[in-house]
Write a structure and sequence with these properties.
By secondary structure, this protein is α/β, with parallel strands linked by helices. Strands 1-12-9-8-5-4-3-2 form an eight-stranded parallel sheet. A two-stranded antiparallel ribbon has the order 6-7.
Length: 340
C-alpha cells in the first residue's frame, strides 16, 4: 500500500538511491511501434508493463517511474484518448503499486508526468490555468493508483515546471521535478542549472528533489549536476542521464553506452552531488545492475573535474554550461520528443 512518507524516509536513510532506466527503449524492444502511445499499453498489454517495472526492481532500483510520461490530456488527444488521461495514469500506478508491494523491500512508485507537448504562453497557446488543469488531472489518477510521489520530468520551460508544482499541491502530493538541459547547458527554453536551482526554492510547493534528465549525453548532464551543487542547495539532486549516444541500426535506435560506462557515470554522478541516480534513454536492466554494484562497492570520492568526466564518458557538446555566459540564447519553439 502507499506510504506517503516512504520516499522522504528512504532519502534520509541513504546516501544515494538508484532510480530506474528507460521506458520507451524497453517497450520498443517488446514491440511498441513508433508513434504509438505507450500509455495505452497499461490497459492492452499490462504484462509488458509489469515486465518493465519488474526489470528495474530486480536490477536493484529503489525508485521506478510509471508508464505515464505522455499520459496528459494534450498528448493523449493525439491518439483520441485525451479523455482517458486520469484513467490511464491510474492504471499505470496500480500496476506499479503491485510490483513494488511484491518486491519484499521498500521500492518507491514515482508517478511520471512529462511535458504537455504544448508551448506555454506568451510564446504559445497553453495558458497557466490549462497547464495546471492537465497536470492536476494526471496527478489525481496517479495518486488514486497508489503512486508514492509524483515525478515531473523532461521539462524545458520554467512556466510549465511551475504549473506542475501547483498541480502537485492541488493533489496534495509530494513531487520531484527534472528539466532537460540540451542546448549548451541550457534547457530548450533557456534555463541554466543555477537558474533552475533558484527557481525551485521560490515555488509555493517546491519539489522534494530536483535535477536533470535526458539531454545530450552523460558528460553534459554531470556538468549540470555540478552546477546545481555549486549553488549550495541542500535539496536532493537527481541525475538521470542517457546511456550513451543514439545510433540508428537495422531499423531501430540503439544507445552505445555499455553497462561499464553507466557504472562509471553512476559513481561520478554521486561524487558530483547527486542523491538520486538513474538512467534515461537507452538504459536497460543490465545497465542498472552495473550501476547498483558500482554504487555499493566504490567509495565516495571528490567531485570529478571536467577533464576526468570527458575522458571517462566522452566529450561535452559545448564549451560552456551556460552559467557564466554573457548572453541568453533565444528559446527554441520546437517540441520535445518523448522520453525513450
Amino acid at each position: 500500500m502507499t506510504d506517503r512518507n516512504a520516499f522522504t524516509t528512504l532519502l534520509s536513510e541513504r546516501d544515494w538511491l538508484l532510480a530506474d532506466g528507460a521506458t520507451g527503449t524497453n517497450l520498443f524492444n517488446m514491440g511498441l511501434q513508433s508513434g504509438d502511445a505507450p500509455e495505452l499499453w497499461n490497459e492492452t498489454h499490462p504484462e509488458n508493463i509489469r515486465t518493465l517495472y519488474r526489470g528495474a526492481v530486480d536490477a536493484g532500483s529503489d525508485i521506478f517511474l510509471t508508464n505515464s510520461f505522455g499520459g496528459n490530456r494534450a498528448r493523449l488527444k493525439l491518439h483520441d484518448a485525451g479523455h482517458r488521461a486520469r484513467e490511464l495514469s491510474r492504471i499505470a500506478a496500480e500496476i506499479g503499486r503491485d510490483i513494488a508491494d511484491a518486491s519484499g523491500r521498500t521500492v518507491i512508485v514515482a508517478g511520471s508526468m512529462g511535458p504537455t507537448g504544448e508551448i506555454m504562453a506568451p510564446l504559445g497557446p497553453l495558458t497557466h490555468a490549462d497547464a495546471v488543469e492537465m497536470f492536476h488531472e494526471q496527478a489525481e489518477g496517479l495518486k488514486e493508483g497508489g503512486a508514492d510521489v509524483l515525478w515531473v520530468e523532461t521539462i524545458s520551460a520554467p512556466e510549465e515546471y511551475a504549473a506542475a508544482a501547483e498541480a502537485a499541491k492541488l493533489a496534495d502530493m509530494p513531487w520531484c521535478g527534472t528539466m532537460s538541459f540540451d542546448t549548451a547547458g541550457r534547457t530548450m527554453m533557456g534555463m541554466t542549472s543555477n537558474a533552475m536551482a533558484a527557481m525551485v526554492e521560490k515555488l509555493d510547493h517546491p519539489p522534494v528533489a530536483f535535477g536533470a534528465n535526458c539531454g545530450v549525453g552523460a558528460s553534459d548532464l554531470l556538468r549540470t549536476v555540478q552546477g546545481f551543487a555549486a549553488t549550495g542547495t541542500t535539496r536532493p539532486i537527481i541525475a538521470k542521464g542517457n546511456a550513451g549516444i543514439p545510433k540508428y541500426h537495422d531499423g531501430h535506435i540503439h544507445y552505445d553506452g555499455t553497462p561499464e560506462v553507466m557504472a562509471t557515470y553512476a559513481t561520478m554522478a554521486r561524487d558530483s552531488g547527486a542523491h538520486i541516480i538513474g538512467g534515461c534513454c537507452g538504459t536497460m536492466p543490465e545497465h542498472l545492475r552495473a550501476m547498483r554494484q558500482a554504487l555499493e562497492t566504490q567509495p565516495k570520492s571528490d567531485a570529478p573535474d571536467m577533464d576526468a568526466i570527458a575522458q571517462a564518458l566522452g566529450g561535452f557538446s559545448s564549451e560552456s554550461d551556460g552559467t557564466n555566459a554573457d548572453t541568453t540564447p533565444q528559446p527554441r519553439t520546437t517540441r520535445r520528443r518523448r522520453r525513450a
